[in-house]
Design brief:
With 138 residues, the protein is mostly helical. 30% of the residues lie in helices and 3% in strands. Strand 1 (98-99) and strand 2 (108-109) form a beta hairpin. Residues 58-69 have low confidence and may be disordered.
Length: 138
């Protein structure tokens, strides 16, 4: 691969086409056999349009009005697991103690107010943060 330039016109066109199709940076990297970072850098340098982050879920534009048939309006127990998990509401100010089997549509987080500086409510902090004195003497 050292003899072949990484970014030929053909590869750049393929990158642009895959980007327009909505493939992730990692998927494009696999397709073109280059690192994820190489793709991210080239996309930036080419000035390709930004896309919504799959992590933050934040968008710069106005949000569309929710449709009546959106996932959030459906009964989570009737949805496939992959879609049901999208209906879980989570906030840093709410206890993130998992309740139930994550492979079940009944899975949820505690949701009580958190102890400042911790990810859990008071009850779940007690469960999560134990000391060696509680484990018994040896």
């Amino acid at each position: 691969m050292a003899d072949i330039p990484v970014w030929t016109d053909e590869r750049l066109n393929k990158l642009k086409k895959l980007w327009e199709q909505g493939l992730s940076i990692s998927q494009i990297g696999e397709e073109l056999d280059v690192s994820r970072n190489a793709i991210a850098g080239k996309v930036y340098r080419l000035g390709l349009p930004k896309r919504q982050s799959p992590i933050s879920g934040a968008s710069s534009g106005p949000k569309a009005a929710p449709k009546s048939d959106s996932i959030a309006d459906m009964d989570a127990s009737t949805l496939p697991l992959k879609l049901a998990l999208r209906t879980i509401n989570w906030s840093r100010s709410q206890c993130s103690w998992p309740i139930g089997d994550p492979k079940s549509t009944a899975f949820r987080f505690c949701g009580e107010n958190v102890v400042q500086g911790k990810p859990y409510c008071n009850e779940h902090c007690f469960d999560a943060y134990t000391t060696s004195r509680e484990s018994g003497s040896n």
